[in-house]
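User: Structure please.
Assistant: Input sequence and predicted structure:
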Amino acid sequence: MNSSPISTRRVYQPLRAVAALASAVLISLPLAACSDETRLVVQSESGDHAFTVEVVDTPETRAQGLMYRQELADDAGMLFDFQEERPVSFWMRNTFIPLDMLFIEADGTILNIHVNARPHDTTSIPSEGPVQFVLEIPGGRSDELGIAAGDTVEHPRITAAQ
């Protein structure tokens, strides 16, 4: 095997180019892309309420949602990002735990809340208008915490949508 400088240079030059390109892409990303997308805060009259969320933003991940999950911690949830404002509706097919659904406009304002959606219910649960986000949290938590329509939600995705 020949380990001359020429053959080594041929291998490492393309790697250096890839590393330089990757660095340029990372540097040019907006700050929100580097933020912690697992932390979401609901600001209500009763105070700030933090949740650890999973973000779902593709048709496949949104379709799966929280189906088949057997439990959800009191401070956990799932944030659905539809990429644009539009009317949306959900159902509880194959969902084993009751959920509250917070329908959120692009600016972070909660438009409406459906409390305690029943597991396995296929009845449509709609937003009351166009929304970009839906936050699902354990059933009854919005009432327990005093979260209501008109409250605001902070999250890197929501800030970016504004």
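The domain at 32-161 is CATH 2.60.120.1140 (Jelly Rolls).
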